[in-house]
Amino acid sequence: MALDTTYNYDLRTFQKRSVVLLETIHNVCRKHGIRYFLIDGTLLGAVRHQGFIPWDDDMDIALMRNDYDELIKHADEWIPEPFRIVCHENTPKYPKYFAKLEDTSTTIVENIYLGYAGGIYIDIFPLDEVPSGLVRRAVNYYRFDRYRSLLYFLYRDPYKHGKGFSSFYTRLIQKLFDKERIHRKADALLREYAGRGMDCVMTHDNKLTAYRKSCFNDSVTLTFEGVEADAPVLYKEVLADTYGDDFMEMPPEEKRRAHYHDYCDLNSPYRDFDIRKFIE
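RESULT FIELD:
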């Protein structure tokens, strides 16, 4: 059964619903002494637009590894309903190496062929220590990326592109490798330099982009869609490292790409959505 991806949703309504997620994680982190930071397009939106980048609905935060682990450890007791932190440790069908804070009263399918349905979300990335030298950092990143690629095929519907060679390759990987073992190996590489006095950190989501660890020694409060949100104390340096020194300039219209979802329902909980009937 094919999934109808011709749905429509109002972007501004989606953005406003997502802001509640940011308020929730902000309050939880403040209450429990956890430091989080806006990052990537969410940080850029806060600085340049005091909220969302107008065409974007994606939200990203990052935490230093120790704070990230503490948040995941206590997620079930700290996060109020209808929200939930999901990660591969507590949700076997979740395919990512990082966590998400999801609104369980909604339904989002990012990629139908990965077989996972969740709620509208904030991506939560760990900031892991890495070497400042490009070569050593690249070795760490590309070793990690090899396992991330394996995870993609381990979760992917093998018949996404039909029953040709692509399906054979995917089915072979799914036969040879165990998801949990690959998750553990990927996680070990993320933590490879933990506690070794490195000067830089990275999320491993923007290829080799790394930041001076001192950028995250403290936080400053910015306004995002009328609510308080925490940013790295050296947020301008972080933005320049991510987007270049001209990060305050608007990109040309052809590069203003929205985040795409295969399915979205802001009024129905994802526990009622049976993704299996669309991929079996």
